[in-house]
Amino acid sequence: MTPSAPDALREAAARDLSALRATHPCINHITNFVVMNDTANITIMTGARPVMGHALEEAGLFATDALVINAGNATFTDWNEAMIRCSLEAHERGRPVVLDPVGIGANEVRTRMIRRILAEGHVDIIRGNQGEIGVLSGLGGRVRGVDAIVGLDDPAAAVRALSLSTGTVSAVGGERDVVSDGRRTARVASGHRYLTMLTGTGCMATSVIAAFAAVDDDHFAAACAGLGMYRLAAERAGRGAGGPGTFRALLLDEMANMTPEDLGANLPVEAIA
Questions:
Q1: pTM, full prediction
Q2: Which DSSP string do the residues of 87-150 spell out, in sequence order?
């Protein structure tokens, strides 16, 4: 059964999707090779427009409305510097920065680089799997490669702790997503098991969050709306999919065809204590 979203989150989700479809904000991605095409396409399905501006020489030259930092290639020196420089310039312009700390905890180099992004750059929203959020929050979780192999006993406590320590909105994936800004916490249901059978589905969720954050200064509401849309689309795509391959195509269709009224009425989000 889909939980009932608080009225304010329901209204915000519908309003944000309307704004995305009307204004088509541009979202810059500094991301990894594996997911570039998928994150670009899922961004388009929201109504936003993607750009992949990785070059250090181009840092700050794209007039974008939000920035995604995906640390999947965090060991590339120029990309590392571009991540930090672009995040600071986005912050100066009042544009939201969303970090996906891919693989933090997998090795010392990657862990050090992601912590440097947080220390020297600027981040507004963090979204990761349970292993990554566990490492960042210090409340458990283990990572092998880019996958979580040990989850969290209490995902809500982990995102609250991370939000309070970093001043960000934090979101953690899993059977359900959990989002917090340190004061408000919500759980996002729906989804489908095929999300765990394809690479890049977490990265795609991060891009959807960034699109919503580009049109909503309340980053908690934006994260809830973006994840709610993504997981609702995944649930619906799974109903007609014959397997992971057709699911991927149907996921894009469901995202593209979802209306603001539909999202607001069916937002699979509930507030939790």
A1: 0.93
A2: HHHHHHTT--EEEE-TTTTS-HHHHHHHHHHHHHS--SEEEE-HHHHHHHHTS--EEETTEEEE
